[in-house]
Structures are given as structure tokens and as C-alpha cells.
Amino acid sequence: MRYSKLLGKSLRQPPKEAEAISHKLLAKGGFIDQLAAGIYTFLPLGWRVHKKIENIIREELDKIGAQEFSMSVLQPKSLWLETGRWTSIDPPLFTTKDRHDKEYALGPTHEEVITDLARRVVKSYKDLPFSAYQIQDKFRNELRSTGGLLRTREFFMKDLYSFHADKKDFDQFFKKVLEAYTKIFDRVGLKTLVSQASGGTIGGDVTYEFQVPAAVGEDLVFFCKSCGYAINKELLEERGITDKCPECRAKLDQTNAIEAGQVFSLGTKYSKDMDANFIDETGKQQPIIMGCYGIGIGRLMATIAEVSYDDKGIIWPENVAPFSIHLVPIGSNKKVTENTEEVYEKLIKNGEEVLFDDRGESPGVKLADADLIGVPIRYVVSEKTLEKDSVEVKKRSEKTSKLVKISQI
To answer: Does pTM top 0.90 for this prediction?
Structure first.
């Protein structure tokens, strides 16, 4: 990709309202553009990161047998009335009416829709278990949309739902999801605390949050360095836990954190409300046991930026970086131009994803933008490097560089 043709360029200053590091860097680097409060456009750089995160999630969920599909954003009011969440869910629903005066919600989550589907396709225990997920636009009527992508009104979320005939089967799948989530966060370069939490307006008897320690995080998590136990402040207070770990009695530490993902053991909450039943092996009718599991894609992208940066810009992990190599020519003479084009063509033929800064900007601007955008490897071609028939290669996460012969690329 030639930078001169890229939709969205770097800004000299971040937006005035930006407070979170990720908001400043993603906006300044040309990854996102704000349309309104809590509503963002993902520019090509940002969308490339977004898609790579999506694909990592797909790979790990496909491995545990989950099927990808897509449900409607528009959801009939009647489904939400069945569960009583039309007026009780928090944040409240975005609602709209059609030309026939029928009311709909813009889906913030899809428990009602998937349960309605399940009650129509599941007849007996032979139809269970199954699990399905989507990566789809969601809408939440947030009172405060802050932190850039960390709290928005419109966002993409991966929501997975599972359906089971008995608790044992559910527990086995729930464990697989926890393991898949651990792999997902590891692949995107995040260390998480698996924290016990309240189910909130989603519900469920067991809920875990995957929390990433970060100063900007709105959640407060208490955790044990000795045994790994973690719990959020709300549930800690509900259970009357003091500063001692209930598992090993060591002292609990605390940290602000960003919730990067959450899993819920729903039991039969929705299946009972909506009469989603199946016939078991004895011929008796039973409610389906359910689980749901979410990851916000944009929030995960922002979380990575919150914990992987320096004073110059973002440092993307290789798995989610928008490009693998940032190619920067220094100088505009014919020799530099021709050799940079040669290097670019070689890299493209080798299957590399390359951002080629072909703009007529000064060396200082180009190098500053390379650091800001945070592509893992920078190649610099200049008169000095060409004296040795080489390019200067530097990893974004390291301070030192080395020369590599053009013939060896």
C-alpha cells in the first residue's frame, strides 16, 4: 500500500477531547475518525487491525467447533418483552418504529434472538449441543461515551452462544471457551486477569471477565499474585471478601483494568422465559441450558494500544499490526527512488504486507509517522544505506537497527 493513496493520514495533534492514550494514538495515527460522540469510522489502517483481530478470534472459535453465522441487528420488541428486558436492560435500548408503528430494538446483544431461533430448531436431545457465533455491529445507548473505542455507542462484537442438554456438557464447553479466550488474548499480545464478576443485566450464575490491567480502566479488580485468584470490586463487596485471598489467604492486590472479554453461564434463564425446550432421552420436556460469551473488537483494539506504546506512538504486536513492514525512503534522488521501488516490489512478491511511504514529506515527518503508526518492522532506504547496497532494518520495539543487503531481501 502506498501511503500517498491511503485514506486517512496522520494528524499533527490528537483531538482535543481525547483523554485515553489509545484514543489519542489511534486518532492521531489515522486509524479512526470520530463522527459523533461514541460513533467512529474505522479508516483503512484501523480496519486492517480490526480484521486481523476478528480472524484470530475466528480461528480459535472454529477450533472448538463453534459455527459462524449472522443475526439481524433489528430485533422485534415482542422478544424483549418475553424476557422483561425491554425496559430493564442497562444501558437502555436504542429503539425505533417502522412505517406500521411496530417497535424494534437495535441489538446490543442477541440472547433473545438466538433463544427464539433455538426454540424453533431444537426438538430433542439429538439436536444438542450446538454453538454459534457472529461478529456484528452492536448498539448501546451509553450515558457517557468516553475513552475513544473503549466505550462507544456503536461497535463490533463477537458474541458466541452455546446450547446444551445437561450441565456436564455445558461445563465442558465452558472450559473450552475459557481456554480459547486465553489463546486469543495471548495471540493479540495481552496478559489478562480472569476475574469473577456479576452477570449484570445479562444474567447467569457464573460470570468471568478477562481483565487487562491499565490505568485508564474503569473496572477495579482484586487479584492474588500467589494463586491467580481474581474478582472485581462489585462482586468482592457482595461476598464480603476483605483483603485476603479466599483461596490461599495471601494478601490481595488491586488494579484498574479494562474488560476485554466476558463469559456467562446462563443456565436456563432465557430458555425458561422463552419456552426454549427439548425432549430428553426419557421423553420428558426440559429447558435448554445456555451460555454466552462476548469480545468487543474495537475495545480490544484500543486495549492493545493502551498497553503497547511508547512516547512516539503505538507498538503493534505482529499478529494484529496493519502491515508487517513500513518502507521509508529518505531522499528524493533517482537512485533512492529506484532502489526503494525495487525493494517494495521484492517485498510484495515475497507476500509481505508493506506500507510504502512514497509521500514527498521530510525525513523527520516520515520517521515520526512510522513510529506513530507502529508497524513492527521499519525499512529505511537512503543514500547512506545504498553505499553498502543495503537497507536499514529496525524493529519498532527495539532501539537498535541493522543493515541488510538488498540482495538478501
So the answer is: yes
